[in-house]
Amino acid sequence: MSAKWENSIGEERLRPESLMMGYGYKPEWSEGALKSPIFQTSTFVFQTAEEGKAFFEVAYGLRDPEPGEKVGLIYSRLNNPDLEILEDRLTLWDEAEAALAFKSGMAAISTTLLAYLRPGDVLLHSEPIYGGTDHLINHVLPDFGIEPVRFDAHCSQQEVERLLAESLRSKRLGLILIETPANPTNDLIDIAMCAEVARRHSTAEHEVLLAVDNTFLGPIYQHPLEHGADLVLYSATKFIGGHSDLIAGACVGSAEVLAPVRALRTFMGTMCGPWEGWLLLRSLETLSLRMSRQIENACRVADFLAQHPKVDRVNYLGHITPGDPRYPLYQRQCLAPGGMIAFEVHGGEAAAFRLLNALRLVKLAVSLGGTESLAEHPASMTHADVSDEEKQRDGVTAGLIRLSVGVEHPDDLILDLEQALAAA
Ligand SMILES: Cc1ncc(COP(=O)(O)O)c(C=O)c1O
Fold this sequence. Notes:
Elements (H helix, E strand, L loop, with lengths): L7 E2 L2 E2 L2 H4 L29 H11 L21 H14 L3 E5 L2 H12 L4 E7 L3 H10 L6 E6 L4 H12 L3 E8 L11 H10 L8 E5 L17 E5 L13 E5 L1 H14 L5 H12 L1 H20 L4 E5 L11 H7 L6 E6 L2 H11 L4 E2 L9 E3 L11 H7 L5 E5 L5 H14 L1
Parallel strand pairs: 4-5, 4-6, 6-7, 7-8, 12-13
Antiparallel strand pairs: 1-2, 3-9, 8-9, 10-11, 11-14, 13-14
Helix pairs in contact: 3-9, 4-8, 10-14, 12-14
């Protein structure tokens, strides 16, 4: 179904916001239905046995497609119309050639890592990183002979090279995975610097790729491919889905770079289902509206928190001002400060728990990026599995609260936080 879609009027290219309602879908395919139906089917009927054979040959890479020949619909583990429309739309903000939709953010991350890493490889990764990704890297992949090497936002390129040097005496650098802004602290990792490290360690036989988890700001407010990344990963459960009613993930990049990931997705069965795919199509229509309101609200809430006497520290990208050493990187890489705030309440875990228990409008729940505001305690919840030493090093302290700001009225959010802080 993927084809060249109309994306301009005359010479003028249409923006993703305008394309989210129709790109990749033609009403005449479905009795004129304005919206794509949910193709809730496991399999697709071939017109002839010869057609089925041809579809498999192309899908399994047994031969190159003839000019104009597309992969036909075969089976919903390989492809499905809702997923193909979704994938076409997911390419737009990142200006990517291709996209893949997954059952979850973790499915996107694990399938991508397994597609590119081999026993004996080193995986260079940034910290802090989402707790589930941290578990995969530090507790699952080592059993497959993959050694993690960590670095953080304070490391220069020379320091990263120094951290790698010992491991690379006997091993090769397999892949670089970074998460920026980082969950839960909003730390910024320099994408261009990591692309340079990947390039330096690439050889004629083995190209080192850079994968960026763009969940916090993407796909609208950060475009890692422009800064040299090869693969962009998403938990689509978060801002892309945006209504806290589904779990999904995505990976975008060039068709060539995605090919091994697509193949492994087929055989691991980590693809998104048609229902979630359809829900994501609905969500993408309002992504820009939701995120811009979330960012406006987050700016108001972060300013309120920063002046509150019970708050020791606020990590919000909107508070990075000229003179801050992070400012040039923020300016270069991020197009907006986002809807995520990390703040440290005075009094450690006990005070943080009192605050969380007192919230009335903001819900006490993990996850983020939805229309409703959510607060959680990373040290004992999303990052409970991370070692105490790492938590300490990464600033995931006992008093730290992560706040995902929704689309509510900002005055009501501040009212709720004010009364909860009084209880803390
Ligand atoms: C930055 C980030 N990446 C990946 C994931 C994993 O996504 P999912 O829960 O959709 O598997 C999360 C989940 O919280 C996340 O915050």
